[in-house]
Design brief:
The protein is mainly alpha-helical. The protein folds into two domains: 160 residues, no CATH class; 134 residues, no CATH class. 64% of the residues lie in helices and 1% in strands. It has 15 helices and two strands. The chain has a two-stranded antiparallel ribbon with strand order 1-2. The chain starts with 9 loop residues before the first helix and ends in an 8-residue tail after the last helix.
């Protein structure tokens, strides 16, 4: 999500991050259609209802928690991480899990050790792998998207695995990288949109540069090493950078101020190791993309990283 901004309150920061997501979301809509918008709408409505209900049951004030925008932002991040043609209940279950188990059970915003959106995403990917790895292969108009997401009629929609998943499958069959179409135009444009949005956040001082830059460097270093070892079976670093959820992860996921490292040196270590883990999981793991699992794994290490990277007090 974001790091900090001295002049803005929580709601204003959340809105700035949502504004920064517009280009990437717009690119996703251009290639995949109305399913993207429907998933976001479902996610936001679910987040507001679930958080309001949970807080009401605990007899806690609802309006401040809802109006700060954190639940809405988490919902949007989760919605744009799942396939645009996933059944409606996927996003509802995922957001419900993210809000309750990723945020409210720890006491709400500021107390959660894990990134809520990525916790919800990981839960969905482990529990419903088929629905979470089948993506639209064409633009869907509003009527088609409604039919597919809500399973109203039997609509034939071109669908398939993500580009990263296709690459892993082909490599497992013994095909070399040079024989594969690894340049996914849609994913490249979507990543470019999130990259521009991330740069906007840095310019506005909503986030600092440390985690995104370290994240990208970590990916470049490990992917370049693997490509140098064997350029026939490992992807070059530019493919890792522009495929999957790389830029969304670098600028919007890893920079969550609550679950990320808080010291300057710690942010560099934290971001670098996430970048390394993303590539390692993509290459050697069982899932096509590794952003969610890399972030969650590094969330666990944040207390240790912060402990050993505290700035020295002046004069000591």
């Amino acid at each position: 999500m974001m790091m900090h901004s001295n002049a803005l309150n929580t709601n204003q920061i959340m809105r700035q991050v949502i504004y920064a997501l517009v280009l990437g979301i717009g690119a996703a809509y251009y290639f995949f259609g109305w399913g993207v918008i429907l998933q976001i709408t479902l996610a936001v409505v679910t987040a507001v209802v679930v958080e309001s209900t949970f807080l009401s049951l605990r007899k806690l004030p609802v309006k401040p928690a809802i109006s700060d925008g954190s639940a809405i932002l988490s919902a949007i991040l989760l919605a744009i991480s799942i396939p645009s043609i996933a059944p409606w209940w996927i996003v509802v279950v995922g957001v419900t899990f993210a809000i309750i188990f990723g945020k409210q059970l720890y006491g709400g915003l500021g107390n959660n050790p894990f990134n809520p959106a990525m916790l919800g995403y990981a839960f969905l990917l482990i529990s419903y792998p088929l629905q979470m790895t089948t993506w639209a292969g064409e633009f869907l108009n509003l009527s088609q998207a409604i039919d597919v997401i809500f399973n109203l009629t039997s609509v034939d929609v071109l669908s398939g695995a993500t580009q990263l998943d296709e690459v892993k499958t082909q490599l497992a069959l013994g095909k070399i990288v040079s024989e594969l179409d690894v340049h996914s135009i849609s994913q490249a444009w979507i990543n470019a949109g999130f990259l521009l949005g991330g740069l906007y956040l840095i310019v506005r001082k909503i986030i600092t540069w440390h985690i995104p830059v370290a994240f990208i460097i970590g990916m470049v270093v490990i992917s370049s090493m693997l490509y140098f070892i064997n350029d026939q079976i490992y992807l070059p670093m530019q493919n890792h950078l522009m495929l999957g959820a790389t830029m969304l992860g670098a600028f919007f996921i890893a920079t969550d101020p609550v679950s990320a490292s808080t010291t300057p040196k710690g942010r560099l270590i934290y971001g670098f190791l996430i970048g390394v883990l993303v590539v390692v999981i993509r290459v050697f793991g069982g899932y096509p993309d590794g952003v969610a699992f890399a972030v969650l794994l590094m969330n666990i290490t944040v207390p240790l990283i912060d402990y050993y990277t505290q700035p020295k007090v002046f004069g000591k």
